[in-house]
Amino acid sequence: QVCPRLRTPQLPIWLCSITGRHGVLFGTDSLLLSDWKTERVFHLYFYNGQQEQTKTAHLTIDTHSHHWEEDRSEDPSSPGKRHPSVEMAIRTKWAGATVSWNGTDPFF
């Protein structure tokens, strides 16, 4: 039998399989599960346990960013426009969100 806390977590947590590697994307704000207003700007953390990741990545998610503020001078297919797989996974839940890596070099 599964414990009720495992069926309904108190904090937001997602197990991810990104490009064949497993990781955990989680938040520390329980309101993210129950109050849609907290989905404006919030923090998530990503950890995959791989050797190249020395600490948990702290990500800031902004779901109300404006796509038209992006640099239009760059070709959308250029390498500078490609986004890390972690960001693309986040956008499956929050379409159009911008992700700040807060000083960590993006990986995946």
TrEMBL record:
Key words of the record: Hydrolase, Protease, Thiol protease, Ubl conjugation pathway
Catalytic activity reported: Thiol-dependent hydrolysis of ester, thioester, amide, peptide and isopeptide bonds formed by the C-terminal Gly of ubiquitin (a 76-residue protein attached to proteins as an intracellular targeting signal)
One GO BP annotation of this record: protein K48-linked deubiquitination
UniProt-recorded Gene Ontology molecular function terms: cysteine-type deubiquitinase activity; K48-linked deubiquitinase activity
Main EC class the enzyme belongs to: hydrolase
Region listing for Disordered, in residue ranges: 64-86
Enzyme Commission no: 3.4.19.12
Glycoprotein among keywords: no
Domain Deubiquitinating enzyme MINDY-3/4 conserved: 2-103
Stored InterPro entries: MINDY-3/4_CD (IPR025257), MINY3/4 (IPR039785)
Pfam families membership: MINDY-3_4_CD
PANTHER family for this protein: INACTIVE UBIQUITIN CARBOXYL-TERMINAL HYDROLASE MINDY-4B, UBIQUITIN CARBOXYL-TERMINAL HYDROLASE MINDY-4-RELATED
Family statement drawn from the similarity comment of this UniProt entry: Belongs to the MINDY deubiquitinase family. FAM188 subfamily.
Role summary: Hydrolase that can remove 'Lys-48'-linked conjugated ubiquitin from proteins.
Name of the molecule in the record: Ubiquitin carboxyl-terminal hydrolase MINDY
